[in-house]
Amino acid sequence: MTAPHATRTDADAALVVAGLHKRFGGTVAVDHLDLVVPRGSLTAMLGPSGCGKTTALRTIAGLLAPDAGSIAIDGRLVAGPGTFLPPERRRIGMVFQDYALFPHLSVARNVAYGLTGCSRSARRRRVAEVLDLVDLGGYGDRLPVALSGGQQQRVALARALAPEPGLVLLDEPFSNLDAALRATVREDVRAILRAAEATAVFVTHDQEEALSLADRVAVVHRGRIHQVADPQTLYTRPASRFVAEFVGEADVLPGTRADRFSVDTPLGRLGTTRALGSASGAVVVRPESLRLARDDAGSAVVTAIAYFGHDQLVQVRLADGRLLRARRGPAMDLRRGDRVEVSVEGPVVVFDDEPAPAPAVLAPA
């Protein structure tokens, strides 16, 4: 499933990508991709490694030329039939995965690098403004090597924002940070982009990062966008089975249509969020919707428990051998080998005529 076709008539869009196609030899990296990014929004392009998201970003930036399709930034065509503007003429700011700071230049000179065509005093004022914006006022004379990873990230962002671009592009911006720092820095980056009233697109393979940071998430698979939506809609109403399984945790059960909005499954009859059009389909069950009750005569057995402190993921085996996961609170009231009765809270998402994947397996607790 692809997103609605983009056109250059989207008046409120900072970026419109229509039919973007890019191949390397016999390999198609981006397959007629469409994307519309509203002004002032933060959009994530989320997908597995090799799905084409970074190629799409680099093509939007002008670092790669498309084989087909068009790109418009703030209503101006920058790539299309007979048109290809280089990166410096696209009014974009770019934050690279490795930050790409000049190690021999001070923080202030790194930030000032993209400020051309203005007086020395104006350049100095703008550098001071953006360093204050990223909470690095007073760091202008330092070299990048003297800064932490999070501070270098903010210098790279300040450099991207300094020329007041129409669009900021970020390529896996948090992948070089350790896990303890990543959550803090991404909240800082979100706040900075908001304060600057910037429009930004970032690519990531991290679902948590995309859902927690972005206003809208575009899920990319095999060079195409399967769905663009706000995080809640993406999670609760996925447009395809790939989106359902890639975004968040999900187990899939076979289902047989009972009536228009219910299916019979190994867990009994379940209500659905949409009508099942065929006689059978794939039923997506989220771990948080599964309820477990200890019952010596229960139909399932606890096989593994992964404990995280704030919650736990409990794996159970159904009578037919299928494995399902349930997310529960921190109370350790179940043990491996306990028999439980399994129920599902709320309606489930169902897709027509999809085979069930191999069950997920947790390491024993």
At the third CATH level, what is the topology name of the largest domain? Rossmann fold
Q: What best-fitting shape do the alpha-carbon axes yield?
A: globular
User: What share of the residues lie within helices?
Assistant: 10-25%
Radius of gyration: 24 Å
CATH architecture assignment name of the largest domain: 3-Layer(aba) Sandwich
Report the β-strand fraction as a percent range.
Answer: 25-35%
Number of helices: 8
User: How many domains make up the 3D coordinates?
Assistant: 2
Strand order of the largest sheet: 7-8-9-3-10-11
> What's the level 1 CATH class of the largest domain?
Alpha Beta
How many DSSP E strands?
21
Give the N-terminus to C-terminus distance in angstroms: 39 Å
Q: Show unreliable segments.
A: 1-9
Order of helices and strands: EEEHEEEEHHHEHEHEEHHEEEEEEEEEE
Keywords: ATP-binding, Cell membrane, Ion transport, Iron, Iron transport, Membrane, Nucleotide-binding, Transport
Domain ABC transporter: 15-247
Protein name: ABC-type quaternary amine transporter
Enzyme class: translocase
Topology:
Layout: E1 13-24, E2 27-38, E3 42-46, H1 53-61, E4 68-73, E5 76-80, E6 83-84, E7 92-95, H2 107-112, H3 120-133, H4 149-161, E8 167-171, H5 179-195, E9 200-204, H6 207-213, E10 216-221, E11 224-229, H7 231-236, H8 241-246, E12 251-259, E13 262-265, E14 268-271, E15 280-285, E16 290-294, E17 300-307, E18 312-317, E19 323-328, E20 339-344, E21 349-352
Parallel strand pairs: 3-9, 3-10, 7-8, 8-9
Antiparallel strand pairs: 1-2, 1-4, 4-5, 5-6, 10-11, 12-13, 12-15, 13-14, 15-21, 16-20, 17-18, 17-20, 18-19
Helix pairs in contact: 3-4, 4-5
GO molecular function: ABC-type ferric iron transporter activity; ABC-type quaternary ammonium compound transporting activity; ATP binding; ATP hydrolysis activity
Protein name: ABC-type quaternary amine transporter
Keywords: ATP-binding, Cell membrane, Ion transport, Iron, Iron transport, Membrane, Nucleotide-binding, Transport
